[in-house]
Specification:
Radius of gyration of chain B: 22 Å
Helix content of chain B: over 70%
Largest sheet of chain B: none
Strand content of chain A: under 5%
Number of strands of chain A: 0
Order of helices and strands of chain B: HHHHHHHHHHHH
Shape of chain B: elongated
Strand content of chain B: under 5%
Oligomer: heterodimer
Helix content of chain A: over 70%
Chain lengths: 322, 285
């Protein structure tokens, strides 16, 4: 009776396997991209005047004499345990540099998500139910504006209004590890608001599209013809089927938030991972760039993975196989 | 081409505004040396001059005329974005149409490769590559073109697969036409409408992407006049914005000028793209 079993575990396992494979391939790309560097890392860091002896010492110190495949396995193994090696610029362990900053970045993304997710789903739902209304038209024009404006434009307008003119929030979000939660929330409000504005427009639009598609299906029309009340149609018939598309929309936008955080952190001089990444790119500090890229890419891939798995789990069609 | 010109007469107001704005930007970019009162990197006067003649938008920290730099910025920023988008389309459509037409292992290998590239967020990937190559205009164009061609690949492959099921493709194959003929004469003309709309959207994306990288100091390098770098250079001034007098107000607004130039162009392109999409989807209401 194998055919009567729900296909859900198989689908989820398959998606997880693909996700794991993607993570491994992406980490390999991040590691081996550096191998394409013209010349060696040693001459790049030590300069043209380096003697063969100093280059040999450098290679020995950073374990650059081992075969690439071995170094990759060692690097990934250590990275999974939280050890990313040593920064070339400061000669400090990267874990020390990253610890607080990674927390700050995820804190900011979570702060923005907590505000943006409920607001945009609610507005998207209302827009879908009252198509052609004033709110609906406002949503489509605001999406156009947000897609067109660079993040830093939105950020500077917010600084101009809320920090310079009104003086409600600081324009530089210099959070420190000793700060209390209330102070931290105030200081990082403007960067969070910038990301909320950017992500809300996308999420509203995508939620609206998902619900509008759903409401056009024949079984909703059938429920209407039966004389069901509008809110009952929404709650009992539409929402269970809308969970999957809405969760997908949310996860996709959270993935976008994690990446969009880089620019916003630079504008507000917020001590996060994005700022560290940009500084390290300018200094060409490879191990730090690799570590930060790995964290960002892994979060992005995992969020996409979660979106797909929840999409499979919440699909009512898969619960009762024929 | 006459097809689009014909539709222009019935274009909605938003599309006309978009086209007019794009036209203004194009003129500024093409004739920058004739229009701009000063040179791109020329030190024209004292630093931080107010918005009065002969510096209608003031001068920056080095005494360069802001208006001239904005005009040259149209040429540099938009020019680079246009080159990048064209390159991305060349790579993306060539590979996408090839993958769809040839099929088999070529399609599988290309599609999996694109999947991996798309699994990494493009900003993160671009930063990784720019660390290795160093920030230069050439590196910028190549990196963004390759990253962006992944989206073009997906679209052109999907569109081509739809077209390949048509009878006239079967007829052309039976006639013994080669791969090049089928791609150029049968598929490309039928895939042009969605690809043109996608070109507009991709241009906006590339343009914002380059501006963002320049803003981070990793894009076009000084003294090239570029809107993203101009925002970066004048960013701190915004904390001195004060609407008490005209002079102090204009001083603090300096970072918003190049940012607005970026925003207006992307809005204009989006307005035109909406109209083209509307036309090509065949909706007539």
């Amino acid at each position: 009776m194998a055919s009567k079993l729900s296909p859900i575990p198989k689908l989820v396992l398959r998606r997880l396997a693909i996700g794991a494979l993607t993570l491994i391939v992406v980490s390999a790309v991040i590691f081996w991209a550096v191998e394409l560097l013209p010349g060696s890392i040693a001459t790049e860091i030590l300069g043209q005047s380096a003697t063969p002896e100093t280059i040999a010492a450098f290679n020995a110190q950073f374990g650059l004499n081992d075969p690439p495949l071995w170094r990759y396995v060692a690097w990934l193994g250590n990275a999974v345990q939280g050890d990313f090696g040593q920064s070339l610029a400061t000669r400090r362990p990267i874990t020390d540099l990253i610890g607080d900053r990674a927390f700050n970045t995820f804190f900011l993304a979570a702060y923005a998500a907590v505000i943006a997710v409920p607001v945009s789903i609610l507005l998207g739902l209302i827009a879908a139910l009252y198509r052609g209304s004033l709110l609906d038209r406002w949503i489509s024009s605001s999406t156009l504006a947000v897609i067109s404006f660079p993040e830093f434009f939105v950020a500077y307008i917010l600084i101009l209004i809320f920090a310079v003119q009104l003086g409600w929030f600081p324009s530089l979000a210099g959070v420190t590890p000793t700060m209390g939660l209330a102070e931290r929330l105030t200081v990082s409000f403007l960067p969070a608001l910038t990301m909320v504005l950017i992500v809300t427009a996308h999420m509203m639009r995508m939620t609206r599209a998902a619900i509008v598609n759903l409401l056009a299906l024949p079984y909703i029309e059938m429920a209407e013809l039966k004389g069901m009340k509008r809110w009952r149609i929404i709650a009992i018939h539409a929402l269970p089927n809308a969970v999957a598309p809405i969760v997908t929309v949310v996860a996709l936008n959270l993935a976008y938030l994690i990446v969009g955080v880089v620019l916003v952190e630079v504008v507000f001089v917020y001590p996060g991972l994005g700022q560290l990444l940009v500084d390290s790119v300018a200094k060409r500090d490879m191990p730090v760039v690799q570590a930060a890229c790995l964290i960002f890419a892994a979060t992005y891939i995992l969020l996409n993975l979660v979106a797909d798995v929840i999409g499979i789990l919440s699909n009512p069609r898969l619960l009762h196989p024929r | 081409m006459t097809h689009w010109l014909f539709h222009l007469r019935s274009a909605p107001l938003s599309a006309r505004i978009g086209l007019a704005l794009i036209g203004i930007y194009a003129i500024l970019a093409l004739f920058a040396p004739l229009i701009a009162p000063y040179g791109e990197a020329e030190v024209a006067g004292a630093a931080y001059q107010p918005w009065v003649a002969p510096f209608y938008l003031g001068t920056d920290a080095l005494g360069r005329d802001v208006m001239s730099r904005l005009i040259y910025g149209a040429r540099n920023t938009v020019g680079i974005a246009l080159i990048t988008t064209c390159l991305a389309f060349l790579i993306g459509t060539a590979l996408g149409l090839l993958a769809a037409t040839v099929g088999g292992w070529v399609d599988t290998v290309l599609s999996r490769l694109i999947d991996v590239l798309m699994a990494i967020p493009s900003l993160i990937f671009a930063l990784l590559i720019l660390t290795i190559t160093g920030a230069s205009a050439t590196a910028l164009v190549l990196v963004i073109a390759v990253l962006d061609s992944t989206r073009v690949f997906r679209l052109s492959r999907a569109v081509a697969q739809g077209i390949l099921t048509m009878d006239y493709i079967e007829v052309a194959r039976m006639r013994g036409e080669g791969l090049g003929w089928i791609i150029r004469r049968e598929i490309l003309p039928n895939a042009s409408a969605p690809l043109i709309a996608e070109f507009g959207l991709r241009f906006c994306f590339v343009f914002l992407f380059i501006s963002a990288l320049s803003f981070l100091g990793l894009g076009l390098q000084p003294p090239t006049a570029d809107w993203g770098s101009m925002v970066r250079e004048s960013a701190r001034l915004i904390s001195f914005a004060n609407f008490a007098t005209w002079q102090t107000a204009t001083f603090g607004l300096a970072p918003l000028l190049p940012a607005t130039a970026i925003a207006i162009l992307t809005v204009a392109v989006n307005l035109v793209v909406d109209w083209v999409l509307h036309l090509s989807s065949g909706l007539k209401d």
